[in-house]
Amino acid sequence: MDGNGRWANRRGLPRNEGHRKGVENVEKIVEKAGELGIRYLTLYAFSAENWKRPKAEVNALMGLLESFLKKQRKQLLKQKIRLHTIGRVEELPTSVFKLLNKVKADTSHFEDNHLILALNYGARNEVLDAVERYTAAIQSGTELQEGELQWETFSNYLDTSGIPDPEIVIRTSGEQRISNFLLMQSAYSEYLFSPVCWPDFGPDLLEEALLEYRNRERRFGKTGAQIEQEKLLSTKSSS
Ligand code: IPE
Ligand code: MG
After folding, report:
1. Residue 142 above 80 pLDDT?
2. For the chain, which terminus, N or C, has the lower number of CB atoms within 10 Å?
3. Is residue 79 lining ligand 1, measured as CB closer than 6 Å?
4. Is 106 a catalytic residue?
5. 236, part of any domain
6. Is residue 203 part of a domain?
7. What percent of the chain has pLDDT over 90?
């Protein structure tokens, strides 16, 4: 979700106004994702590097996060959406951390739809944390070392354990870089870069993005002919 600051600057407004508009858009996008049948929606809300911003902006972002969670709690319960977080959330202000845990616990019985907030998240930190957790599990004997380490085993120690890899990753505001987001999990994701700043990336644009995704051919290292063949076989077996 990039471009809140530029959205505000272009209108002669303070950056925080852009963030406030950005949160409004999050609420709309969460609702739309449910309607579109997106079962897992991950939002990169605060990166591990965002602490470097001016203190007043960091504080404003934390305040917005807190009010968003208070408001969104009811909405998540209504829409039967389970909240998850990825990132080092224990380093967030205590009030935010506690509220996150509360909303996660309150929605933990929902299985179908999931909202994942990336907070104080960075893919490199995540890999380091996973290595530490994996090593600890080996040492304590909860994980058995059988032959060569497989990605399927190691990925259980990432923050995203239990959450499927993203099919599509969208970055708004025209920047064409990944900025330490889900580097491992997006190995085969389709990337979509939109020039629109996040506050204006509304539900209709999300729907359009899904249409574009549908027209892309995901080959996972295979040839186009193989994929066509597989499609043919799967339509044959399902009819
Ligand atoms: C939102 O946009 C990013 C966060 C949620 C922290 P930015 O604040 O990065 O907006 P720009 O890049 O300055 O326009
Ligand atoms: Mg930015």
Report:
1. yes
2. C
3. no
4. no
5. no
6. yes
7. 94
Going from the C-alpha of 99 to that of each of 96, 147, 202, the distances in angstroms are 5, 42, 27
Cα atoms found within 13 Å of the Cα of residue 159, Cβ hemisphere only? 26
Does residue 19 lie within any of the structural domains? Answer: yes
Any long-range contacts for 56-62 (C-beta under 8 Å, 24+ apart)?
57/15, 57/16, 57/19, 60/16, 60/19, 61/19, 62/92, 62/93, 62/96
Q: Which of 62, 173, 175 to mutate to test the pocket of ligand 1 (most atoms within 8 A of CB)?
A: 173
Check if 2 is active-site: yes
Question: Is the CB of 5 within 6 Å of ligand 1?
Answer: yes
Count how many domains the chain has.
Answer: 1
Domain that holds residue 110: 4-212
Indicate which ligand has the atom closest to the C-alpha of 46.
Answer: 1
Distance of CA 161 to the CA centre of its chain: 13
Ligand 1 pocket, 65 CB below 6 A? no
Q: Which of 9, 50, 156, 180 is catalytic?
A: 50
- How much is the average pLDDT of 81-110? 98
**In the numeric block, which tokens belong to residue 89?**
């959330």
Per the prediction, the chain carries an average pLDDT of: 96
Q: Could you report the per-residue pLDDT of 193-237, keeping only the tens digit for each?
A: 999 999 999 999 999 999 999 988 888 899 999 999 999 999 988
CB of residue 199 inside a 6 A radius of ligand 1: no
Pairing between β-strand 168-171 and β-strand 190-193 as defined by DSSP bridges: parallel
Look at residue 218 and tell me if it is in a domain: no
Domain containing residue 184: CATH number: 3.40.1180.10
Strand partners, 51: none
CA distance 118 to 197: 19
